[in-house]
Design a protein that fits this description.
Strand content: 35-45%
Distance between the termini: 17 Å
Largest sheet: 7 strands, antiparallel
Structural class: mainly beta
């Protein structure tokens, strides 16, 4: 998702985020994916804060999905600064929105990294170790909590130590290179994340995906 991302991507994502809506009243714990309508539902606690909330219906109008790719190591841009999109790899996808945390509007995003898998796939979450590869069938997952209108790295960022990411919905058409999905499609999933005995979250989310970003900074963080 996402806060340990460098400032360049943080600012880019915030610029796209827009304004959030007031969360609907909490309606109980989240224990499964809530379907293909746009929503962001969170249950649990993190760093002593109760994050139970749901954005559904009109309140979910600003829930968003971001996709990020990176050029493969050794790839160089052409004279116009563009990369060959057949020589890229998927870095992460995140879904986020603006929620209420202890009476304060807070942007929240949750991600999964490296493997752009089809709907119906469950991936165990493994601890994040920058500069390494993520084995097939596994993923990293982090959350961001930050003030709307600021860079995502200005707030809280934390990668879960364990859990499961279930990809429940994913549509999007790759370009001619067969990897990079330039825009469009919708993503949805269910996250069950743990940072230890006192910090555990479940998240259900679905959103339309914005135009994708092709960035170079992930090359130092994630080995393809």
């Amino acid at each position: 998702m996402a806060l340990s991302k460098v400032l360049a991507v943080g600012c880019a994502l915030v610029a796209l985020a827009g304004c959030g809506s007031t969360p609907e009243e909490d309606t109980g714990s989240v224990d499964q994916w809530l379907g293909d309508s746009a929503h962001l539902a969170i249950s649990g606690t993190f760093e002593g804060k109760n994050l139970d909330t749901r954005l559904e219906g009109e309140a979910a109008s600003s829930v968003y999905c971001n996709r990020v790719y990176a050029p493969l190591p050794g790839s160089e841009p052409d004279a116009e600064g563009k990369y060959d999109t057949s020589q890229v790899y998927f870095v992460f996808r995140e879904i986020g929105g603006i929620i209420d945390v202890d009476g304060t509007a807070t942007e929240f995003a949750v991600s999964h990294w490296r493997h752009e898998v089809p709907a119906g796939t469950d991936m165990p979450v493994v601890p994040r170790v920058y500069g390494t590869a993520i084995a097939a069938g596994e993923t990293w997952s982090d959350i961001n909590l930050f003030e709307p209108g600021t860079a995502s790295i200005s707030g809280v960022e934390s990668a879960a130590l364990s859990g499961t990411v279930s990809v429940e919905l994913y549509t999007g058409v790759p370009d001619a290179g067969g990897i990079f999905v330039p825009e469009g499609g919708r993503a949805g999933g269910f996250w069950k994340l743990s940072w230890g005995p006192n910090d555990n979250l479940t998240v259900s989310a679905t959103a339309d995906c914005r135009p994708s970003q092709l960035l170079t900074w992930p090359q130092a963080r994630l080995v393809p």
